[in-house]
Amino acid sequence: MATIKPFKGLRPPQSLVEKVVSRPYDVLNSEEARAEAEGNEMSLYHIIKPEIDFPVGTDEHDPRVYEKAAENFRKFQDKGWLVQDDRENYYIYAQTMNGKTQYGLVVGAYVPDYMNGVIKKHELTRRDKEEDRMKHVRVCNANIEPVFFAYPDNKTLDALIARYTDQPPVYDFIAPGDGFGHTFWIIDQPEDIALITREFSKMPALYIADGHHRSAAAALVGAEKAKQNPNHRGDEEYNYFMAVCFPANQLTIIDYNRVVKDLNGLTPEQFLEAISRHFKVEDKGTDIYKPAALHNFSLYLDGRWYSLTAKPGTYDDNDPIGVLDVTISSNLILDEILGIKDLRSDKRIDFVGGIRGLGELKRRVDSGEMQMALALYPVSMKQLMDIADTGNIMPPKTTWFEPKLRSGLIIHKLD
Predict the structure, then answer these.
(1) How far apart are CA 258 and CA 101, in angstroms?
(2) CATH class given for the domain over 256-377
(3) Whole-prediction pTM value?
(4) pLDDT tens digits for range 227-276
(5) 46-63 per-position pLDDT tens digit
(6) Before 312, cis peptide (omega within 30)?
(7) Do 207 and 122 meet the contact criterion of CB atoms below 8 Å apart?
(8) Would you kindly state where each structural domain of the chain is located, as residue ranges?
(9) For 152-239, where are the E strands, in sequence order?
(10) What contacts 271, CB < 8 A, 6 or more positions away?
(11) Helices (H), 56-170
């Protein structure tokens, strides 16, 4: 069962929140962060992308860069750009995209729950990326950015959240660039805090939606601190890391699509013929075609869109991995026909989040950079949870969650 706790959040004053908050560290490169932070010394990028304070081209993994993160984090607190709450609270963080709002609870998630599988994963992590985030957590002694969890639907929590969100929020703003709304409330009543802790303690599992590397790093540093402390009790702040937990029924996974540089020596006609062995192929003309259902794919090739429908027998509906469209397309198109064996390392393939639209696939093929594009029907939250529950791992680049959590609304210190 899931263990969580409230914590004393470190937050920007209401008047500064829009200056401080930023996109997550991993959705933009150093130059984009440098441009977004230009002229704004309060931007969180100075903490999460501190290479922007060094000359262009400085390695973001240089030890001086991590030290700069810690130095800037101290500066933000000294200057009052980040102020810690006096009491332990839970928090509500709501995001609005395209008229739809999802409401997350900001909590301290329990490190041993990550280690023993109560917090469930659906992706493999890379050690180099884990180590990068571990260095950042260690040097700052804080979880600067939250991870994104899903929890099983819970009517009691829904009612509590509705009660708080009827009140005026602490923060309420539209983020530049994406135009998504971000709203924030504090849950500070002892009886409500106890209720949330109790309701989570009944949940058999929490699910990482987005932020596998941040989760791993936060948990590993917490476990490391426990081992290093000769007087470790188990209730120290480092035993917890910051997560925003959303009810699964409010979350939407959007498509994560593929573009490929070449057809492995085949002509477009030969490629379509090879595909037709496993798929029903329909020419949809020059208008963008979006996959209509599970096991239906959209192919863009030679200026035309095609509907591909997997034939019966090419997938196993009883296998939580085999039923995924990303598995079907990886096995029967990318591997069998195009010779792309490893999605993580093959340089002939790239991935495009569905937030960019299918027009981005068309653009990259029409430009000559890529030769074909494949759009997939998005995975469902049920599929994700089924995979996590059975201990399976999704193939690479399967899920894309939107909107992304804004960083800097709240920070969790480890002492």
Answers:
(1) 28
(2) alpha beta
(3) 0.90
(4) 999 999 999 999 999 999 999 999 989 999 999 999 999 999 999 999 99
(5) 999 999 999 999 999 999
(6) no
(7) yes
(8) 4-251+402-413, 256-377
(9) 171-174, 181-187, 206-210
(10) 263, 301, 337, 372
(11) 63-78, 111-116, 127-140, 155-165
